[in-house]
């Protein structure tokens, strides 16, 4: 399995949103997609938070 990256998570989220908006999902698949979207959102949020903290630390070291 490919290691999840921010870019791949974002692309997968975009695909999920597109499939939901198109109305092509049945109720069972919709539940699974929403659950996966929630996992991806959490991953992206954590990644952005970690990156922000790392950047702040690097900028502080430059001062």
UniProtKB/TrEMBL annotation:
GO molecular function, one term: exodeoxyribonuclease VII activity
The protein's enzyme class: hydrolase
Signal sequence residues: none
Pfam families hit by this protein: Exonuc_VII_S (PF02609)
GO CC field: exodeoxyribonuclease VII complex
Similarity comment text for this entry: Belongs to the XseB family.
Documented EC number(s): 3.1.11.6
Keyword Hydrolase applies: yes
Recorded superkingdom: Bacteria
Keywords recorded for this protein, A-Z: Cytoplasm, Exonuclease, Hydrolase, Nuclease
Protein's name in the database: Exodeoxyribonuclease VII small subunit
One GO term (biological process): DNA catabolic process
